[in-house]
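Researcher: Let's do a round of design. I'm pasting the structure tokens now; please hold your answer until I've finished.
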């Protein structure tokens, strides 16, 4: 049996050496830039080297199924609007039974994986499946929350993203000038001084920048359709968190207000400024662990970066390691503590109708038509 030649790869110890302090790694040591698709390509190349072609196809299949589960209904509705006779019946079936179709596709993938297991490669194939599922969760599902945040208003995407960026910048500045104590073994260059300095700077930035971002309807109003942009943005009644509110200054802090030249016992702030502090604390304390996790993955895979599209910074995935977990938290924070509870009845009704099946929507339409006819409303409207 011919032995396959292998190329020595750098160990975790080598990654900390001066040789790897600059982006000099060659193509075989880095990922091509992209999110989940390019990361899955790593397991695909490993499967080819072990002559397991179906393992590669299965990884891509699971990614497509996951994407279908999240965005399939929107995709099917768009295709139906094109009125293509040859596929309309099939697309309508997939839309009407979207959940069942998705579950069936996952079951097919499971059976496919079990039947593809080969003697001598069980551990490797299970590891590849785990790698694929991990990527689907950390990249596809968390990106889905980014999309949901944008649909609630660009503010909930812009601010969290900037908080992560600001924290990264100031953590580097404080660490560069004052860093002495190592923070975590996974990232030897991270220091406690940088961690704390970045956290303080991020909180200050969040509190001071929020009023300026909140001035523009483009950021705080949910988009009505995909064609909304900075030149064609919707108008809306702002959420109460974007409306200035007066707060009574506690007596114990009144001397600070007087020292700053504020003689009143009240002060006006936007409620969103206090919410931004919570987001900033998460961006400073928890979000960096997304980067630490990515560092652990890169060390396990013996690579320096996930890509090389950004000179000196790796690839797009290297820049999004903290953004994914931040986007997930921001969406759930908004849904739990900020989303307006005083929603108009029409909005609630439209939301209910939107979630009905197509058959139920048609039946509701017919029932409303019959009801309006009996009430003689249609003739009144025409007059």
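Researcher: That's everything. Go ahead.
Model: Designed sequence:
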């Amino acid at each position: 049996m011919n032995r396959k030649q292998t190329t020595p790869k750098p160990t975790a110890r080598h990654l900390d050496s001066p040789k790897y302090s600059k982006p000099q790694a060659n193509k075989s040591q880095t990922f091509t830039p992209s999110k989940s698709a390019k990361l899955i390509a790593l397991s695909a190349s490993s499967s080819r080297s072990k002559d397991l072609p179906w393992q590669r196809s299965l990884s891509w299949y699971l990614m497509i199924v996951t994407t279908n589960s999240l965005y399939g209904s929107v995709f099917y509705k768009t295709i139906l609007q094109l009125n293509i006779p040859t596929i309309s019946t099939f697309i309508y079936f997939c839309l009407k039974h979207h959940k069942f179709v998705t579950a069936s596709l996952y079951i097919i993938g499971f059976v496919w994986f079990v039947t593809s297991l080969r003697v001598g490669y069980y551990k490797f194939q299970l590891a590849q499946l785990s790698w694929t599922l991990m990527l689907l969760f950390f990249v596809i599902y968390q990106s889905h929350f980014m999309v949901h945040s944008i649909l609630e208003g660009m503010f909930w995407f812009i601010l969290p993203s900037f908080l992560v960026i600001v924290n990264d910048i100031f953590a580097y500045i404080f660490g560069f000038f004052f860093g002495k104590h190592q923070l975590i073994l996974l990232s030897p260059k991270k220091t406690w001084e940088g961690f704390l300095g970045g956290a303080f700077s991020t909180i200050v930035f969040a509190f001071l920048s929020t009023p300026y971002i909140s001035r523009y309807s483009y950021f705080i109003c949910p988009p009505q359709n995909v064609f909304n942009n900075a030149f064609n943005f919707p108008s809306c009644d702002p959420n109460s968190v974007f409306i200035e509110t007066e707060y009574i200054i506690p007596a114990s802090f009144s001397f600070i207000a007087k020292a700053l030249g504020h003689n009143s016992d009240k002060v006006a702030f936007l409620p969103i400024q206090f919410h931004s502090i919570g987001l900033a604390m998460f961006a400073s304390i928890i979000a960096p662990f997304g980067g630490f996790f990515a560092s652990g993955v890169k060390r396990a895979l013996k690579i320096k970066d996930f890509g090389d599209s950004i000179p000196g910074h790796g690839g797009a995935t290297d820049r999004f390691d903290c953004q994914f977990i931040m986007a997930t938290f921001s969406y759930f924070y908004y849904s739990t503590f900020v989303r307006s509870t005083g929603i108009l009845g029409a909005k609630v009704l439209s939301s209910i109708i939107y979630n009905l099946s197509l058959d139920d929507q048609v039946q509701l339409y017919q029932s409303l038509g019959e009801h309006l006819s009996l009430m003689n409303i249609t003739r009144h409207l025409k007059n």
